[in-house]
Amino acid sequence: MHKLQAIIIALLTLFVANYANAQTPVEAPKQIIHSIKITGNQRVEESTILTYLGLKDGAELNQYDIDTALKNLFATGFFADAKITQQSIDSSKTDILVTVFENPVISKLVFEGNDAVEEKDLKNELELKPRSVYTKTKLQSDVKRILDIYRRGGRYSAQINPKIIQLDQNRVDLVYEINEGPVAKVQKVSFIGNENFETSKLVKVIRTEETRWYKFLSSDDKYDPERLQYDQELLRKFYTSEGFADFQVKSAIAELSPAKDAFYVTFTIEEGQKYRFGKITIDSALKGVKTEDLQKTLLTSDDTIYNASKIETSIDALTKELGNQGFAFIDIDPKLNRDTTKHIIDISYNIKEGPRVYVEKINIVGNIRTLDEVIRREFRLAEGDAYSTSKIARSEQRLNNLGFFEKVKITNEKGSAPDKTIITVEVQEKSTGEISIGGGFSTTDGPLAQFGVKETNLLGRGQDLRFNAMVSSAQQQYDISFTEPYFLDRELSAGVDLFKTSTLTNVGIPYQNDTNGVKFRLGYALAEQWQHSLNYTFKQTNISNIQTGASIFIIDQAGITTESSVGHAITYDNRDNKFSPTTGEFFRINQDVAGVGGDAHYLRNEIHGGYYYPVAPKWTFSLSGASGYIFGFSEDVRIEDRFYLGGNSFRGFENYGIGPHDISTGDSLGGNVYYSVTPELTFPLGLPDDLGFLGSVFTDAGSLYKLDGSNVGVSAPNSLRLSSGVGISWASPFGPIRIDFADALLKNQYDRTQIVNFNFGTRF
């Protein structure tokens, strides 16, 4: 028995030993490289290939070295294929034969069928370019890039068919045959889970829109994943402002139709319960601050519908109020206590003094054309200053008011230390140069034609240069203007205007008025929202072509006169946007003195003002007014220097229709004193916002009166004139159009009225 066990153990031991020997690789004998021969290369130098191979004469060679050399060759992208073979000389030496097949070089890139995307935009995205080496991998990558370009433009059915045309000397032409396909627009927007608001209401909340025939100038009906993300935030803001504090967007899905020509967007939402505000309190740790005074600044109040936006606005109001009291660094944390049973939310605004933070650095990105200094000089903060939220907001407003940027976004992040912050200004530039050709009609000037060239950001320096010409049956105007907003690198605006104006005899006056002149301007800031400007004007005026039977008061004014005047203006402006204001106010006082040489001697005083208030979303109430008074120094004020009202300046009356008139001829003589007031309410008409229609109701009130010398034969009462009416404006694709219907409710015997005032113009 023991002998049998010994035999078995011996056999097993022998088996294991043989198995182990079988698994141990036998190392191939190493050989020495005798020579390296390269064939098949046409463009790539032999020395370059040797460098990539990593093999040298006299070096030892094994299979690992050969595999590595092949990988190196393919990694260059120069070769479509490569082979390495050995030719042994003896047991210790071998010759290496490297055979390569080079990738062709692209001679020319051609795009066919690309109507929606310009060729230069396609080329900028591609890796393969003329004189570069063609590879299949790069081609596949470039085809994907082109498809991505078309998908960003909404063309999801675009097809790219690349074709290779073989040429001599291992060259190819690469042709992309493109079938762009239709733009896949949003056909339908649906909501699931909306129990408190109709779909028609929610569709107006989001930015994505269903496609309609009249939206050819809008891109909001194209599917955009980023816009879909923004829509979810808009829905959240809307619901939380309507009391639904627990609102959630569960999903936002965009499904592409089988034909790839339309998207169907579906929002799945959970509204939750509607809440009301409970008890609103302020808990302040600031010394000397009375919470009862701060309570007056809050927009949130007890037992009203919960509104998250009012909480944010209240925090801004508290920050501004405390900033005015000298607390520049504060931290306001609203604590919300939610009662899910009674559906009430109590709020406590906890105020404490925050850490003092300084601006470490201001980064500016996105400005390709505009110089950094143009943006920095609008900033109310500099590097090293104490950080201020109100100054950041004012800086953003000033940058928007430049009119150079489509979008301005200011963000901040932590700096190199806890008390430092880095501010980033991200801008998206828009075109600031414009060549305009216009045509239109107005009840004031009749048919008109206009040509203009302007650049409001000349050479990216913020300088303004413009030329305008307007010719109508009533007037001819020509002017050239240049403005340097930061003269001598100071906050000093300097400019010059050259102008020529001819007012013809068919606009309510029986004479022709030709004026040529030059004006120099200089302006500077008195305070953050206060401006002061100075000007000098020299002009020559010619009253001619007086019609037969015209007023004797006009005939006496015939001839050429020169005027040399100096003036100044003080302006206050805190409107949210000077181009289309919805909130804020402004006023301006002008004074001009003529008599620094020339024939005219007078003092002209004018004041203008306006107040804007958003009574509801997209509803704006405005109250504007103006008044003026001019008097001569030991002489009568000439007819061309007086004030005139009517037409666009006082609806319901003809141009030059208000004020002193010659009783016998009915001619308008102008006046030395005027005032006007206009309350107006602008509102949407219930049409889609894209159409650009707005309605308005208004009342114009005022008067124009007083002449120098004897008023015998002149009607110049200072009685109040009053008109009221409605208007419609359209920001059409062809230019701004406005029509006003007004009725003169209070008028003088010699005033001339009109019901319709129409203006149309276009630019392209």
The pLDDT mean sits at: 85
The total beta strand count reads 34
Residues in β-strands, percent: 35-45%
Shape: extended
The multimeric state of the shown protein is single chain
Helicity level: 10-25%
Q: Uncertain runs with pLDDT below 50, 5 residues or more? A: none
Number of helices: 12
Structural class computed from helices and strand pairing: alpha+beta
Give the strand order, joined by hyphens, for the main sheet: 17-18-19-20-21-22-23-24-25-26-27-29-30-32-33-34
Mind summarizing the main beta sheet? Answer: 16 strands, antiparallel, barrel
Compute the CA-based radius of gyration. Answer: 39 Å
Distance between the termini: 112 Å
Textual characterization of the structure:
The chain is 18% helix and 45% strand. It has 764 residues and is an alpha+beta fold. Strand 32 and strand 33 (735-746) form a beta hairpin.
